Amino acid sequence: MPEKSASNLVAEPQSPPKIRSPKRPAGTLYRGNEGMWSWVLHRITGVSIYFFLLVHILDTALVRVSPDAYNIVIDSYKTPLMGLAEIGLVAAIGFHAINGLRIILIDFWAFGAKHQRTLFWVVIGIWLVLLAGFIPRQLMHVFGG
Amino acid sequence: MSTAVADKKPAAAEEIPTFTATLIIRRFDPDVDEEPRWEDFDVELYATDRVLDALHKIKWEQDGSLTFRRSCAHGICGSDAMRINGRNRLACKTLIKDLDITKPIYVEAIKGLPLEKDLIVDMEPFFDSYKEINPFLMAGATKGGKERKQSPVERARFDDTTKCILCAACTSSCPVFWTDGQYFGPAAIVNAHRFIFDSRDEGSQVRLDILNDKEGVWRCRTTFNCTDACPRGIQVTQAIAEVKQAIIKGKP
């Protein structure tokens, strides 16, 4: 920030010195590589899983309050919309789990740090295989009746 | 190569081909601007020119108010780290011809440190965390009062992290550092690594304790932005991982 010169120490009532705290201007996007985007995905999936678990603990705890209320809530999950949301849930947990193993390898194995980019695509590969196995079955389950 | 070319008399010096590149620079004048603004410049350049030469041409020929830091201009002083096309690079080590000149070249200040003017940021928070890790040899008197001996193998252990020039390209590429300025940042950890794994140093336990802090190495999320940004090719994330392991083991 510009330093106020000594002349400003003399009182100038008509024009108070404009002192602004250094503000952080709005940022622009950093173009990171696989490592950064895997971290972004890891964070997004992690937060989503956290909120899912929150709801999941609440609806499971409901059985202690009232079994009828529990049944109503569980029945409301048996809609096609929730069936599709379950695909998102499995995708999020799958990525978070496999990428978590990648991060462990990076932290504890020099080979992992050196080949993190390859490992990221291995993670994506395993994840896609997982989804390829799950999504058709889930869609049959939801829409097959 | 044919020898026929060598027989001919060299023709008069040919005009060295030039090309025009467009630079879009994120300008910020704290006295005038509320927010930074993008400004375009067309510059005539040679194939041997670097981004720093383009900035010089703009400053010397088009707009003298363009503000940026540079000192040695040869990748040693670490003054001119900036974001070029969205990635942290040294302007003096980035050749224009290596960038895609059919598109404009975006140049902006490094991220996460307070922006002062144009491409200049306040580096004090960066150097503060560097100072905190005791970046100097901590050792008592030598045995016998002579030199501290070190084998080539022991020297090689920390060779990679001796190359740091403190340009802040790594620290300001770190997503954790952008949102949490308290994090030590890759550069400080790299320079701690340089002494932690130095066989002559006796203060590694002190440094490991400092970095075992909440804002220490455990904030690293292994995004590898720092390794990609480092103009000296230091395996930064690898070095951080080694410090993490040293903390777990309790010794380097």
TrEMBL record, chain A:
Record's keyword terms, sorted: Heme, Iron, Membrane, Metal-binding, Transmembrane, Transmembrane helix
SUPFAM superfamilies found in the cross-reference section: Fumarate reductase respiratory complex transmembrane subunits
Cofactor: heme
Compartment(s): Membrane
GO terms of molecular function: electron transfer activity; metal ion binding
Gene Ontology cellular-component annotations: membrane
GO BP term, example: tricarboxylic acid cycle
Pfam families: Sdh_cyt
Domain of life: Bacteria
Region (Disordered): 1-26
InterPro entries listed in its UniProt record: SdhC_prok (IPR039023), SQR/QFR_C/D (IPR034804), Succ_DH_cytb556 (IPR014314), SuccDH_FuR_B_TM-su (IPR000701)
TM region(s), chain numbering: 40-58, 87-111, 118-135
Coiled-coil segments on the chain, per record: none
Family label: Belongs to the cytochrome b560 family.
Name assigned to this protein: Succinate dehydrogenase subunit C
Species whose genome carries this gene: Salinibacterium amurskyense
TrEMBL record, chain B:
Pathway note: Carbohydrate metabolism; tricarboxylic acid cycle
Cofactor remark from the record: Binds 1 [4Fe-4S] cluster.
Pfam families (UniProt xref): Fer2_3, Fer4_8
Keywords: 2Fe-2S, 3Fe-4S, 4Fe-4S, Iron, Iron-sulfur, Metal-binding, Oxidoreductase, Tricarboxylic acid cycle
Protein name: Fumarate reductase iron-sulfur subunit
Residues of the 2Fe-2S ferredoxin-type domain: 30-113
Limits of the 4Fe-4S ferredoxin-type domain: 154-176
Family indicated by similarity: Belongs to the succinate dehydrogenase/fumarate reductase iron-sulfur protein family.
One of the GO BP terms on file: respiratory electron transport chain
Domain of life: Bacteria
Segments crossing the lipid bilayer: none
InterPro entries: 2Fe-2S_ferredoxin-like_sf, 2Fe-2S_ferredoxin-type, 4Fe4S_Fe-S-bd, 4Fe4S_Fe_S_CS, Beta-grasp_dom_sf, Helical_ferredxn, SDH/FRD_Iron-Sulfur, Succ_DH/fum_Rdtase_Fe-S
Required cofactor names: [4Fe-4S] cluster; [3Fe-4S] cluster; [2Fe-2S] cluster
GO molecular function, one term: succinate dehydrogenase (quinone) activity
Catalyzed reaction equations: a menaquinone + succinate = a menaquinol + fumarate
Top EC class for this record: oxidoreductase
EC id: 1.3.5.1
Family annotation (PROSITE patterns): 2FE2S_FER_2, 4FE4S_FER_1, 4FE4S_FER_2
Gene3D superfamilies attached to this UniProt entry: 3.10.20.30, Alpha-helical ferredoxin
